[in-house]
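Throughout our pipeline, every protein is held as a single compact record rather than as scattered files. The record that follows is passed on verbatim for readers who wish to inspect the format:
___
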Amino acid sequence: MNREAPGESSRRIKSYVLRAGRMSDAQKRSYENLKDNFCIPFSETMLNPETLFGNKHPLTIEIGFGMGIATAMIAEANPEKNYLGLEVHRPGIGRLLWEIEQRKISNIRIVEHDAVEVLEKMISADSVEAFHIFFPDPWPKKRHHKRRLVKRPFNRLLAEKLIPGGYIYFVTDWADYGDWALSELTATPEIYNQYEGFAPRQEWRPETKFESKGIAKQHEVRELLFRKK
């Protein structure tokens, strides 16, 4: 697959804008008290999931987990799997850490860093069972489409990290982004669409408050499930 030239990561157009969101007292407390237990510092050393989690359970990576409530619910319901959340917004990390403590979850770890760089530097090829990308920023204005996360060559990076048969599960409530993602994923040769067009809702995925608000505004939720060949 295509590799970035030295220094290109720093020049790359990022799919997010780092906003200075306000943290609640509970989020601050959870972040300060729990980050050393569940947050992994970014480094240029490949992670060993077995060492990180203390078991050989399959690994799911969620990119941009927002406030992390759905992440916590999925991990709590699937203790036989490990979950690595990638997020740059600290209030969401604080909220997920709060959820981890309240639910007594042990199968989640977090990296507070840009997902592309984490995948490039810390995740080995053929090591991930699944990628979850739920409601990423749609960047609706045409001039901002270049900021969208799900596009080539990033899709090929995801495919490289998946085990054979592993999947990418993408959900958006922005119809245009759904069409865009369908086109970009279909054009990624290492993966194939498990369904004809958009996927049916996967019943195990919890509905979030964000999703509920989108549905109330009559947004059409579109889901895609692609697997590595």
Summary: The two ends are 15 Å apart (CA to CA). Strands lie at 59-63, 82-86, 108-111, 128-134, 162-172, 191-193, 222-228. The chain has one domain: 41-228.
